Amino acid sequence: MTGTTFMREPEQPDVGGGLTPNEILLLGDGEVVILDQTQLPTEVTYRRCREWSEVVTAISDLAVRGAPAIGIAGAMGVALAAQNADHDDVDAYRSEVARAAQALVASRPTAVNLPWAIGRQLALLEEHPGPTEAMTASLRIFAKRLHTAEVGRCRAMAAHGAPLFGHGAQILTHCNTGALATGGVGTALGVIRAAYAADPTVSVIVDETRPLLQGARLTAWELARDEIPFVLVTDSMAASLMADGFVTHVIVGADRIAANGDVVNKIGTYGLAVLARAHEIPFYVAAPTSTIDLATPTGADVIVEERDPAEVHHIGLFGRPAADPKSPVRNPAFDRTPHAFVSAIITEQGVHRAPYGPGLRDAVDRSAPLTA
Ligand code: MRU
Asked: Are residues 64 and 181 in the same domain?
């Protein structure tokens, strides 16, 4: 199944890259349909997951990736498990949904959006009086409302963040934080989209983001489709570009923000934050409140996913070998940026500055509750 017109519903907003939210992630009847990001930028293809285990695979393979997007996909996976479970045996039904929930939460350990979303679904199920048909309907409604809520959060972040960038801003960004990562206009990329819409002299510097090239494959693809000017650079070029005055701001997303404002995000983020501080360049983080983990005191408490060495031995997802496959490898997918290096955190509630603790707590308290 190919083509970007699949699933287009006219009333849905264009969230970037010419895509609508349902063209990124869709909970259908008996299936979760996922735009397969492993095939971009060369092909727009979809994975149709008819079993929850296929959603687990799609998340761990990075067919769907980015913190808000995996939260939504996980919630859709739970709803699919519920739909396929035995509705005549309430105990079997509950244990099948719990089994799926556990596997989906474990599919990627770092982004908090996945346990955040699925935890709410399990709490919903716990309190639900039944019958099982009604429980399934509630889990489906929750997953769809979560998707809609993330789309709205992205728009609010974009509006709050855009004024931070002035005329002629040259904004460096890392990884992919756009429509593909969120189902909406994006976190950091949503802010960039809004800054460019307000002032077309704004341009973007896209880090390729080794080892899996989310910047080169996905961010460049989204920006090109939106005709937003950008240059693609390798990760190692950031320091000299900053020293030569080509970078006016850095903005990234987050997979988990600890209660003290420490930011866990794609590997390479910490290095950019240190470089930005050394060159007196503002370093911003954009993330919805669903990415804030008040139960985790600091970044040091977050588990960083260690991925397959083959991703470092090769260039690109299925690329040619770049190293002797026997070479020992480290492949942490994320790093921790201490809050002291962060100039501001943008959520859907506004722009938060240090000390981050009280502002983040307040933002989470004010965020709209999600029910089914
Ligand atoms: O491994 P990925 O591609 O899922 O990593 C994604 C990131 O690190 C993003 O920066 C993060 O999820 C924020 S995007 C909304």
From this structure: no
Classify residue 303 by burial, with Cβ atoms within 10 Å: 0-12, 13-18, 19+.
exposed
Residue 12: inside a domain: no
Q: Which of 192, 206, 214 to mutate to test the pocket of ligand 1 (most atoms within 8 A of CB)?
A: 214
In the predicted structure, residue 372 carries a pLDDT above the cut 90? no
User: Which CATH number characterizes residue 38's domain?
Assistant: 1.20.120.420
Ligand 1 residue neighbourhood (C-beta within 6 Å)? 62, 65-68, 111, 175, 177, 181-182, 187, 214, 252-255, 265-266, 333
Is 255 catalytic? The answer is yes
Tell me, in angstroms, the distance from the centre of ligand 1 to residue 133's CA. 35
Same domain for 174 and 79: no
Q: Which atom of ligand 1 is nearest to the CA of 174?
A: 10
Task: State if pTM tops 0.85.
Answer: yes
Host domain of residue 82: 21-155
H helices of the chain, where?
Answer: 52-60, 67-84, 90-106, 113-127, 132-161, 179-182, 188-198, 214, 220-226, 238-243, 269-278, 310-313, 356-366
Mark which of 140, 155, 170 sits at the end of a domain: 155
Please tell me the predicted confidence (pLDDT) of residue 2. 39
- What pLDDT, in 10s, does the model give residues 182-193? 999 999 999 999
Catalytic residue among 255, 262, 293, 335: 255
Distance 185 CA to ligand 1 centre (A): 14
Residue 3 lies in a domain: no
Is the pLDDT assigned to residue 8 strictly greater than 90? no
Which of 120, 137, 155 terminates a domain? The answer is 155
Separation between Cα atoms, residue 204 and residue 121, nearest integer Å: 38
Residue 135 CB burial class (10 angstroms; 0-12, 13-18, ≥19): buried
The answer to whether residue 226 scores a pLDDT higher than 90 is: yes
